[in-house]
Amino acid sequence: GENVEQHPSTLSVQEGDSAVIKCTYSDSASNYFPWYKQELGKGPQLIIDIRSNVGEKKDQRIAVTLNKTAKHFSLHITETQPEDSAVYFCAATNYGQNFVFGPGTRLSVLP
Amino acid sequence: KAGVTQTPRYLIKTRGQQVTLSCSPISGHRSVSWYQQTPGQGLQFLFEYFSETQRNKGNFPGRFSGRQFSNSRSEMNVSTLELGDSALYLCASSLTGGMNTEAFFGQGTRLTVV
Description:
Chain A has about 110 residues and is mostly beta strands. Chain A contains no helices and 11 strands. In chain A, strands 2, 4, 5, 9, 10 and 11 form a 6-stranded mixed β-sheet that branches. Chain A has a 5-stranded antiparallel β-sheet with strand order 1-3-8-7-6, with no helix packed on it. Chain A is globular. The termini of chain A are far apart. In chain B, strand 5 (about 40-50) and strand 6 form a beta hairpin. In chain B, about 0% of the residues lie in helices and about 55% in strands. The chains are: A mainly beta (about 110), B mainly beta (about 110). Chains A and B meet through strand 4, strand 5 and strand 10 of A and strand 5 and strand 10 of B.
């Protein structure tokens, strides 16, 4: 079955700097890769996703890149703000199957 | 548009009891998935329901079960509770779970077993 690894487990950046979180997956059949942000006491919130027929997707300060050959995808957050502090999860799935999540990255944006 | 609603938000149960959690998906969404979140194991898939049928199942014991109603609302039940069942239980709804796989999570139900 699918296995998703995520690095780093914790990340601290200064406000205004960029943050990058990387995930690798094992199942070459996986074709949909969402990223979720989870704040304390809340459920995961979908922030961006990418499908296997696309190499990069941007939404304002957030971008995701996908390298199908290497089976890894990354979340890029630019101009970080304190409200970006949260736990971020990547996930991988094949259409119609369940999501397999990475273990999460705790991002702290220091003012 | 209302989001995914899970009730109750918090539950405290005793070992050996059973519990039922409820999830109302986003209007129009027909797929509901359930996940268990713990600090040690992360987010683990329990099962998915689509059109009142269980379509996928994770590696959890038979004490964990679920169902989906004709209005797409879903319930999950855990029988003979164990201390290790203490977790945040999350449900996620999506339009079909197939080609349209964007999934949106509820706030979760925090279950504590004592």
